[in-house]
Each structure stands twice: as C-alpha cells, then as structure tokens.
Amino acid sequence: MAVTQVVRSEWTKIRSVASTVWTLSLVVVVTVALGMLISALSKNEFDSMNAQDRADFDPTFISFAGMSLGQLAMIVFGVLVVSNEYSTGMIRTSLAAVPQRGAFLFSKIAVASGLALLVGLVTSFAAFFLGQAMLGSHRAEIGDPGVLRAVLGGGLYMALIAMFSMGVAAMLRSPMLSLGILMPFFFLISNILGNVDATKKVGRFLPDQAGSKIMQVVTPIDDDTPYGPWGGLGIMGLWVLAALVGGYVLLKKRDA
Amino acid sequence: MSRSSVAGMIELEGLTKRYGEKVAVNNLSFTVRPGIVTGFLGPNGAGKSTTMRMILGLDHPTAGDVRIDGKHYEQLKDPLTYIGALLEAKAWHGGRTAYNHLLCLAQSNGIPSGRVRDVLETVGLTAVAKKKTKGFSMGMGQRLGIAAALLGDPRILMFDEPVNGLDPEGIHWIRTLMKSLAAQGRTVFVSSHLMSEMALTAEHLVVIGQGRLLADTSMADFIARNSRSYVRVRSPQRERLLDVLHQAGIVTVESGDGVLEVDGGKAERIGELAAQHRITLHELSPQQASLEEAFMQLTAESVEYHAHSETSPASPEPARQQWGDGWKRG
C-alpha cells in the first residue's frame, strides 16, 4: 500500500464534501471579523487606559481575539473529517480499501492538518493586517520583534487545534459526543479554569491556554507563566500527540 | 488446510468471534472456490455478516484464521484488486457524489480513474454520477455498492444480502450479474437468508445457524439430502392398491382424503404395478418438499442439537419457536 495513494484518496474525500468548505470559511470570516471589531474597540479605549494597561497593550494579540470563536469552527472541521467516517458507515468501505489502519488514519490527519495549517496561516495573516488597520496609530508592524513569530504561530495554533479535535474524534467516533465535549471545553471550561486563581496554575497547561502563548508579543508585567511562546506551543503539541496516539490505538484495536 | 495457489480462494479455518458471552461465529471452517456462485445461507443473526466482516479484516476474530489466496487481508497489496465487497447498504458519505466516492476508493488502491466511469456504466449510474448519494434510492445505493466492489476488477466478489430492498428488475439484474461474474471464472460469495434466492443463483451452498457450520455442499447434493421426495397416489380402488403395494414391499402412508404418500422416487414402479393389476389411478405425482422446508428443517435440527448440548434443562420447543420467528421476520 503506497502511502501516496492513500494521501491522494484522502484529499479527494476532503475536497468533495461541503462541510470542509463551510467550516473553514467560517474559521476565516469569524476570526478576522471579530478580530477587527475588537481591535477597533480597543483603539477607542486606549485613551482611557491607565499606565499599566497601556504598557501591557499588545496590538498583535488583540488582533487575534477572534480566534476564541473562530477556533470553534476549526474544531468542527477536525471532528467532522474523522467522525463522518463513522456516522455515515464509510469507515467500513475505507478500511476495506486501506486495511493498514495507521496508514489510513495518519494520511487522513496529514491531509486535513495541511489544509488546516494553510487556512490557519491565511486567517492569521488576514486577522493581523486587518486588525492592525483598525488599531490605527497603536498598531504593531510585521517587522517588530516577535510579531512575525506570533502571526506564524497563530496559523500553527489553528492547525494544532484541528489535529487535537481529530484525535479526540478518532477516540470517540461520534460527532455529537466529540463536539459536545470539545466545544464547551474550549469555549468555556478552559477559560474559567485559566481565569480563576485557584485553578490558574493547572489551567495554563491546557492545550489552548499553553498554545495561545505563541501569539503574545508583549508579556504582561505580572506574568509568571513558566513557559515561553515555543514552550507553550510544545505543551499543546504534547496534548495533540496524546490525542492522536489514543485515537490510533483505539482504531487499531476496535472492530470497524 | 491446503495453501493452494489457485487465485480467488477464501479459506476459513476455525474462525470464531465472541462478543462477551455470546458466540456470533463458532469455529467455522470452509473454502470458497472460484468459477461458481457460493451461497452463504443462514437465518438472520446466524453470523453471516460478522463472518464477511472478518474476511475483510474489519472485525478481528477471537480465534481462527481467514485467508485470501493464502494471505491475511491486510497483507494484500491494493486489496480492492483482489476482493470487492458489497457490505450492508449505504457504507458511504451521503454528501459526496457517486463519482467522487468511487474516485477516492480507486485512488487509494492505485486504480486508474477511467475505471470509475467504466463501473458506473456497468451498474447503470452514469446519469447520476455527479449527484450526491444521499438522494439515492435503495436500488441505486445497491448499484453504487456493487460498482465499488467491481472497481478493482477483483478475482473475488462478496455480496452481503444483495437483493435486500430491491425491486424485481434490480433483483433480476443482480442474479444475472453474479452468474456472469462466476462464468468469467471469478469467485462469487453471496449471503442470503432466503433459500429460494440461493436456489436460483448458487451452485454451492454453505449453511450456518447460530454461527455454526451446518452444511458445505453442492446445491444438488443439498437438495437431494435435505428435501424429502415422495409420490402422491390417488385411486378409486384404494384398498386393492394398498394390498398390491404392500405385497411389493412398498411402504405407504395415508394422508387423508384417500391420498397415499409413498416415500422415495418410485413413481414408475407404482404405475407399472397398478397397470399389471388393472388398478385405476387418478393421480401419480412425484413431490418434493420445498427447499425452504429443507432449510428450516436443517436449522431446526441445529437448534435441537444446541438445546440438548446445553447443561440447562431448557425445553427445545420454545427455542424452535424463536427460530421460526426470526426466520419468518427475515
């Protein structure tokens, strides 16, 4: 079984269903539009800020504010790519065609992740430039220290969120169950854990909290996060690895 | 088991699948050979689909082994070119077009994309090739599944209940297709819960009940061995006929309305005896119990066997009832 054959096949699968187009379009539109809105609001508030808030003002990070919502569409994309196989019964056809389950799963994840990375980078750059345009005189430039790293990191973050969702969906199989766990987790629970003092130290090791450190350019003065931007992305990478290994082990073991 | 090098063999050896306490497939051993249609017969829930999923490597056997041309399924390079299968209906994404569904399967096995158009033509779906499959009727769905099975031009074809839900025209089409595939020298392995369906298509028969092998035989042998044949005789001189037959050593059974039943195929002998003794006959007709009856008799026997072999003192009567029920519902 040549892996290139399986990758081509998975590319045909992914480009031939409508959910790919609408989930990824939503990623771009929601992230960029919300980022622009929050950037515009932040610009108007800047004048009423105190000295410390002005010192912590991170125009790059503000322009990525839309990702908190846009990532949910990325989660839907990742979940559907994998769980559609199960909810439609396609999995039996797929595994009869490609009985090497590792080749099947990782070709699928490679193709979907490549696409997610591409869309993530487009989203990230668009959100940055359009967000900065909204920020006017408070804007950051792409050449400023750490800014290009943050913008590229935004694209990587989106790809990793999609990959994590694929791993979880491979373990759970059901699209509703996967979304029912991932959506509230990333939209609510992670934020709550990360903002309540008692759970903050644990919360910042969650995949989204650790991973989003890469998009920060200005480190807040009272910040005591024990990892840097790449360290944070590395922690997120470990979560992704765990989810994918879990998904692979279960797929290998289970009856289709 | 012989590891013969003839292409197109499916060999099962002690194949067993347990789900917890329940045994779905119990120590199945048989070989499916090329050039004929082999029917895989059993009541609903007998383990036919589970067996077929194990052949395709989708379900892992609890014990035993199944090989395609001497290899395990996952050892086959581009498996769709060895064996094509129609599993239960609608094993695909309804949002994808028929063409794209077949294209992604073709690509995964290195099959040229021109072949997709060929098989769509073969099954008569060319006109709806660019339509999403969720709008397909049951019959179109079966045709798409068969197109996927034919895609790799495989030596072995496996169909799980292919006539389910089809209209008479579709049923006729599938029967003809299966016979022509076998006539081309391919191995055709088809499951059904309908004996009448098998009688029309299969030359060889594998019968299972409760996951157990009940028969592995040619269709002709199966009929001869399992169906009771007898001769119906009616005569206005019934008492004289009974005497004559009795003197000739022929055992008769009276079945009411003055009809005599004589076991075995002895119509000629009875006719000759009647003529010799100038006895008028109103009826002399060889009868065959239907294949349906033969099949039910066979599976009922397996139930009795199970009931006796179990340690619990369960009465065989309710078990037989359950079997009949499952059978009728199917």
Automatic annotation (TrEMBL), chain A:
Cite the entry's keywords alphabetically: Membrane, Transmembrane, Transmembrane helix
Q: Which residues form a coiled coil?
A: none
- Segments traversing the membrane: 21-41, 61-82, 103-130, 150-172, 179-196, 230-251
| Domain of life from the UniProt record | Bacteria
What the entry lists under Pfam families is as follows: ABC2_membrane_4
Q: This protein is called what?
A: ABC transporter permease
| The organism of origin for this protein | Streptomyces iakyrus
For this protein's source organism, the top of the classification is: Bacteria, Bacillati, Actinomycetota, Actinomycetes, Kitasatosporales
